[in-house]
Amino acid sequence: MGVSPTIEVDEQTYRSIEFAARMSNATASEVVARLVRAASAPPSVSAATSEGGAVPAPKIGVYVDYEGHRTHGSYDPETKRIDITSGPLAGQSFKTPTGAARAVVIHYKPEVNPNRNGWSFWVRDDGSGEVLQTIRHST
Prior knowledge:
The protein is α+β, with helices and mostly antiparallel strands. The protein has helices spanning 11-23, 28-40, 44-50, 97-108, 118-121, and strands spanning 60-66, 69-75, 82-84, 93-94, 123-124. A five-stranded antiparallel sheet has the order 4-3-2-1-5, covered by helices on one side. The longest helix is centred in the N-terminal third of the chain and has 13 residues, at 11-23. The N and C termini lie far apart (48 Å).
């Protein structure tokens, strides 16, 4: 087997990739490959619309203030995933709001138990001040 190409990243980015790998039961290389595929893929809304398919439900902006840091994300009502869009965890995607909540807690306060209810942790970023729980069963 030959030598694989390498990519240099700063320490924080490497820790984030390693964390994402642990959370998704994947290797760091698989996480990076997923990020590259996601960044290279055409937007699904334009593809679905141009091919006459159904337009996916719009993502819902969410945020959380934790330990003096605001983290923004987007919630996909179809898949129930949260994609982190700001801060040190930006670019990471989680299968559930709870998984994303745990990641935020672990990042900012690793010494505490990270168990959180993601549905009541994330706040809708629409000015309503409502937690994600308010739309949980309507989506």
